[in-house]
């Protein structure tokens, strides 16, 4: 595992974007596993700037997202499909037909989960998976529990995750309590993993993920078992690591 210390969020975003840009440059038809939330926004902004400077070509890239809220249409402004269009897809030359997310409006959750796993398999897997880290140690929407769930599944979000994501919703707006998420096997099947973490509020979770036991109580700890993980974290997030 390679741990890179960034000075701040801006530095983290630049370094992580450079890591992803290198993947796209070396393999123009790569499959990128993408994440949402607040941390990747600066990364996507930097990638857009690189594209505008003609440094990157996304025309052959396929993008697979980690998760999607159940019950939200792709056009809903709080859906992750909307987030990805707003923060990346509409600003680069990626083909919209090559951008994949779980269907939040699928009637049969079991069928939708199986479809998504089959889709990733048909793409020959994910070359580089971008991950953020939840305050409770979750990756994607894999919440702490008694066992690692291997495949894409519908998860009931924890109260802490709902509270953390409430900042993306207007006051009084109905907030989803469940979501589809790529499972632990799906994440670990990626050839390379890039974990990005920012802020002192994530320091304890990061320490547990990288230095604690591998346990479903801290889902991110499973990354210790992957052979090619790079962690880019700012100094605040690394404050409990003793580096």
Output the keywords.
about 240 residues; 7 helices; three-stranded antiparallel β-sheet; globular; about 15% strand; alpha/beta; single chain; Rossmann fold
Write structural notes for this entry.
- This protein is of the alpha/beta class and 243 residues long.
- The protein has a single domain (2-234), classed as Rossmann fold (3-Layer(aba) Sandwich).
- The protein is 30% helix and 17% strand.
- It is built from seven helices and ten strands.
- The protein has helices at 9-26, 40-52, 80-87, 109-122, 159-165, 184-188, 203-211; strands at residues 2-6, 31-34, 62-65, 67-69, 99-100, 128-131, 153-156, 178-181, 192-197, 229-234.
- The strands form two sheets. Strands 1-10-9-6-2-3-5 form a seven-stranded parallel sheet, covered by helices on one side. The protein has a three-stranded antiparallel sheet with strand order 4-8-7, covered by helices on one side.
- Helix 1 (9-26) packs across helix 2 (40-52).
- The model has no long low-confidence stretch (mean pLDDT 95).
Quickly count the helices. 7
- CATH hierarchy: architecture: 3-Layer(aba) Sandwich
- State the helical fraction: 25-40%
The beta-strand count equals 10
Oligomer class: single chain
Quote the average pLDDT: 95
Main sheet specs: 7 strands, parallel
Shape: globular
Strand content: 15-25%
Radius of gyration: 17 Å
Broad structural category: alpha/beta
Please give the order of strands in the largest beta sheet: 1-10-9-6-2-3-5
Number of domains: 1
Terminal-residue CA separation: 14 Å
Unreliable spans are none
> So what's the CATH class?
Alpha Beta
Helix/strand order, N-terminal first: EHEHEEHEHEEHEHEHE
The CATH topology turns out to be Rossmann fold
């Amino acid at each position: 595992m390679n741990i890179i210390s960034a000075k701040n969020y801006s530095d983290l975003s630049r370094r992580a974007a450079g890591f992803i840009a290198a993947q796209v440059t070396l393999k123009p038809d790569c499959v990128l596993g993408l994440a949402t939330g607040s941390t990747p926004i600066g990364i996507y902004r930097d990638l857009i700037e690189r594209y505008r400077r003609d440094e990157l070509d996304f025309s052959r890239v396929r993008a697979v997202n980690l998760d999607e809220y159940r019950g939200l249409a792709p056009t809903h402004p709080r859906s992750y499909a909307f987030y990805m269009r707003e923060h990346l897809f509409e600003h680069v030359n990626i083909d919209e037909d090559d951008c994949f997310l779980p269907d939040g409006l699928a009637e049969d959750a079991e069928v939708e989960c199986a479809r998504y796993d089959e889709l990733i398999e048909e793409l020959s897997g994910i070359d580089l998976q971008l991950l953020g880290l939840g305050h409770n140690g979750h990756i994607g929407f894999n919440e702490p529990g008694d066992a690692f769930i291997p495949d894409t599944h519908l998860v009931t979000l924890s109260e802490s995750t709902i509270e953390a994501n409430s900042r993306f919703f207007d006051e009084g707006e109905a907030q989803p309590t469940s979501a589809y998420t790529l499972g632990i096997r799906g994440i670990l099947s990626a050839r390379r993993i890039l974990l990005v973490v920012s802020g002192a509020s994530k320091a304890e979770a990061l320490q547990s993920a990288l230095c604690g036991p591998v346990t479903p109580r801290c889902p991110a700890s499973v990354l210790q078992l992957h052979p090619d993980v790079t962690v880019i974290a700012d100094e605040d997030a690394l404050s409990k690591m003793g580096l």
